Each structure stands twice: as C-alpha cells, then as structure tokens.
Amino acid sequence: MSLVLAFLAQVGALNSPGAAPPLPHELQSEPLRPPRKARVQAQTAPARVPSRQQSCLDIAEQTPTDGEASARSWLASVQGPEKAVPGECLGVALSRQDRWAEAQSAFVAARDAAGDKTLRARLGAMAGNAALAQGNAGAALTELDSAHADAVGDAAMTGGIDVDRARALVLLKRNDEAAAALTEAREVAPDNAQAWLLSATLSRRMNKLPEAQAQIEKAAALIPADPEIGLEAGVIAVLAGRNDAARRSWQSVLATAPDSEAAATAKGYIAQLGPAPAAQGPKQTPMQTAVKP
Prior knowledge:
Elements: H1 3-9, H2 37-44, H3 51-62, H4 64-76, H5 84-96, H6 100-113, H7 117-133, H8 137-150, H9 155-171, H10 175-188, H11 193-205, H12 209-222, H13 227-239, H14 243-256, H15 261-273, H16 286-291
C-alpha cells in the first residue's frame, strides 16, 4: 500500500497515546479551522475608541471576571443604543471564560441595540463565532448571514464574515456553498490569508489538489511563517505524491514555530514519512519549503 493510501486509511481511527494524528490533519466533519481567539480582540479594538470602551475591553482581555463585572455595571447604567458598546465588552469577557452560549447572547443583545450598521455587522460576526465555538453551525450561519448583510460596502469585514460563513457551511456539510463563500472572500479581500488557507483546505478535501496548491502558495506569500499554512502545505504535497516537499514544509513549521500545536503535528507527520533520502538539494528558506513542489 502506498504511503498516501496508508495515511488515508487511518482517517477517523483512534490513535494510541503519543501517536501522530492521521492525514489529513482534521476530520471531514470538523470546521475548516476554529477562529483564532486573537481575532476577537482584533475585531473589537478600532483605532479610535472612547476611553471607557478601551478600558473595559482591556480588562476583559486581561482579567475576564473583572471585565464581566465592569461591563454589567456599565450596562445597568445605560439605555437603548448606548447598550451596544458595554454589551460588546461583556461578550468579550464571557468569551475569554469560554462561556460561549452566554457570550453569544451578549453579542446578539448588543447588536440588536446598535444603530450603526458597521457596529451591527461586527457584533453579529462575533455572535456567529461564539455559536461556532459551541459547534452550533445552524445558529452561527443565521448570525453570520445577518452580519454579512449589514457589512455591505466594507470589503475587509465582508471577507472575514465570508470566511466564518464557510466554516459554518462545512460543518453543515454544504461544501459547495462553503467554496462559494470563500471565493467571495478572496475576491473582496484578496489579502486575507485565512481565506486562502481555508480555501486550500477545502479544495484539498474536495480532491482538487491543483487548486489547493495554488491557494496555499498564495496564503504563504501573504504570511510566510504561519505554522498552519506550512502544515496544510505539507498535507497537500503528500496527497499529491510529493513526499520530499511535504517533509520540507513540515520541517519549516518546526523551524518557525517549534512550540506550537502545529509543530507537534508536523513532527508526527515527519515520523510517518520515515527517514529523508540521503541526497540533499540546496537549502531553502521556510517560505520556499512550505509551498514549492
């Protein structure tokens, strides 16, 4: 049995403790990749914000229980549209405590109070992410579709929401619609590396390896040292029968992010590939090894 077929035969199997995960490195039923927690902070910290809002968000990030108390006190003192900002702070504080259902409710309440469409779009997207964190793809898609409608005219926000919509659609096993959402994300926000990375992942899952290769190369051009991009590049390479390229991609993950979860996975994959051939070509940079055949 070929190496690729042996790997694919393992998908869904339980691994013994300490064993490397099977290839591909996530199950077909999982979302493309969970939103990174850092994205919540990036969405909630505009360049210029009222000092009380920034203070509340800072506390929510650093000491979530104190941030929750501060946000609830603030909410109790305001009415109408003024509830949107402290409601956002409350949602962030609850998110940092992994209280996702409560965070979703907080973001929805804040969105419903908001009058500004851009703010409504951001809060709706955050509600969708909180639903995704619970694995509730149907609720997530409802919130994200609403946020998408509010974000019309803001290319960067629309692109980010489309990426999250694709995650929800994959969970719902609606891969063609997810691919369409990612196509829109790449068109409206071509510098969104996550859109290119998740497009590569989905193309690979749909057995469209040439498209996956082109998309992962674009993702790597945007963020050369991202460990998730290097990990995915190696998976695409090994499924295309390019084991040496896969090994180089995974070694680049070890070099650029040695303490990451991606590095631990890459190390396991390299072990499954076995020893490298004796002959070595010219040394390449992590960027080159991550994407080139």
